[in-house]
């Protein structure tokens, strides 16, 4: 049952989309399932194309991969349909009939909520309001939306079918461990759990279905919105280091801090990680830009990664060295030989 779950280890924006895109191509993944909601944007760059995805899985870069949206996810149906048309994905996409639907009314409710806007720093994309309606059992589902009728199906059954045939399946979770409603920096969190266990629950899978859990970290930490960020550095220092980034969905500038080993340790343990991916290594170590072989990585970058690996107690299987999906060092064979 070759199922891999990809989750974030910090506050989101770690590069999960890049890793899912890489796996889709390198492992010829048969299906990818996106969990979470459309308040999280994943950016994937491949062959000169930039995919900014709020609903579809980042495995879209492999034209042969089926693209599924989990039953426990929440999507704004217009956002979904726009992505399906923009990226010519019709025929590959299946939305579970039970997927929750965000409406303009949910967005308006959030925009009127000063607590969310000013104190929490919410993206105000209607996700929290839709989650409230889901809990109260009055939320519209994908099966209720005529425009989605051709796209709906039973994603749980489809994934089971893939696993029974031995197909490779990737689960793409959203945001990061420290934004979990239960385990993150409450109240400065998102409206759902963001762990690997929660992603499986949204699809309807169990722990024994899983082969690997890849926790993705960036080589530095970023956070959008309010809430604690240990070791946060001033904006001017971030500019000098070249660590300036902006959110995919909101366009807001991300707050920045150096890599935090304590936050990483807890994320690794809570997600029962079997492997780690580190992205944006080229931003911290510019000489690593575009390197795709471990032997050619700068010595200081290698040393830093090996020290992280030793402290976290889990192998670093993937090293991201550029925006392009294939600018990735894949260490799985090397680790397997140890």
Automatic annotation (TrEMBL):
Binding site for GTP: 12-18, 41-43, 254, 280-282, 320-322
Entries under InterPro entries matching the protein: Adenylosuccin_syn_GTP-bd, Adenylosuccinate_synth_dom1, Adenylosuccinate_synth_dom2, Adenylosuccinate_synth_dom3, Adenylosuccinate_synthetase, P-loop_NTPase
Nucleotide-binding among keywords: yes
Pathway as given in its UniProt record: Purine metabolism; AMP biosynthesis via de novo pathway; AMP from IMP: step 1/2
GO biological process, one term: 'de novo' AMP biosynthetic process
Residue numbers annotated as active site: 13, 42
Pfam families (alphabetical): Adenylsucc_synt
Catalytic activities: IMP + L-aspartate + GTP = N(6)-(1,2-dicarboxyethyl)-AMP + GDP + phosphate + 2 H(+)
Protein residues bound to Mg(2+): 13, 41
Cofactor: Mg(2+)
Gene3D superfamilies, alphabetized: Adenylosuccinate Synthetase, subunit A, domain 1, Adenylosuccinate Synthetase, subunit A, domain 2, Adenylosuccinate Synthetase, subunit A, domain 3
Binding site for substrate: 248-254
Any one GO CC term of the record: cytoplasm
Function (record text): Plays an important role in the de novo pathway of purine nucleotide biosynthesis. Catalyzes the first committed step in the biosynthesis of AMP from IMP.
Subunit relationships: Homodimer.
HAMAP family assigned to the protein according to its UniProt record, in alphabetical order: Adenylosucc_synth
Protein name as it appears in the record: Adenylosuccinate synthetase
Species the sequence originates in: Pyrolobus fumarii (strain DSM 11204 / 1A)
Gene coding for it: purA
């Amino acid at each position: 049952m070759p199922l891999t779950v990809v989750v974030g280890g910090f506050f989101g924006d770690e590069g999960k989309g890049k890793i899912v895109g890489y796996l889709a191509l390198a492992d010829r993944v048969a299906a990818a399932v996106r969990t979470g909601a459309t308040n999280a944007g994943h950016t994937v760059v491949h062959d000169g194309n930039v995919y900014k995805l709020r609903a579809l899985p980042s495995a879209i870069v492999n034209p042969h991969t089926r693209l599924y949206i989990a039953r426990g996810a929440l999507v704004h149906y217009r956002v979904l349909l726009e992505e399906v048309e923009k990226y010519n994905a019709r025929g590959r996409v299946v939305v579970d009939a039970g997927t929750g639907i965000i409406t303009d009314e949910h967005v308006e409710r959030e925009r009127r909520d000063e607590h969310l806007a000013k104190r929490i720093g919410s993206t105000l994309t209607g996700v929290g309001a839709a989650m409230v309606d889901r809990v109260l059992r009055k939320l519209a589902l994908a099966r209720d939306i005529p425009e989605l009728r051709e796209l709906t199906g039973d994603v749980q059954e489809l994934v089971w079918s893939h696993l029974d045939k031995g197909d490779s399946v990737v689960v793409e979770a959203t945001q990061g461990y420290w934004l979990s409603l239960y385990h993150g920096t409450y109240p400065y969190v998102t409206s759902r759990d963001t762990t690997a266990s929660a992603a499986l629950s949204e699809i309807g899978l169990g722990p024994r279905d899983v082969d690997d859990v890849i926790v993705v970290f960036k080589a530095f930490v970023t956070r959008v919105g309010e809430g604690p960020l240990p070791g946060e550095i001033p904006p001017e220092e971030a500019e000098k280091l070249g660590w300036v980034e902006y959110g995919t969905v909101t366009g807001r500038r991300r707050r920045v801090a150096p890599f935090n080993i304590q936050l990483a340790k807890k994320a690794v343990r809570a997600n029962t990680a079997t492997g780690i991916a580190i992205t944006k290594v080229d931003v911290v170590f510019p000489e690593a830009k575009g390197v795709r072989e471990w032997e050619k990585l700068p010595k200081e970058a290698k040393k830093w990664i090996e020290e992280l690996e030793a402290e976290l107690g889990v192998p670093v299987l993937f090293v991201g060295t550029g925006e392009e999906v294939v600018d990735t060092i894949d260490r799985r064979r090397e680790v397997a030989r140890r």
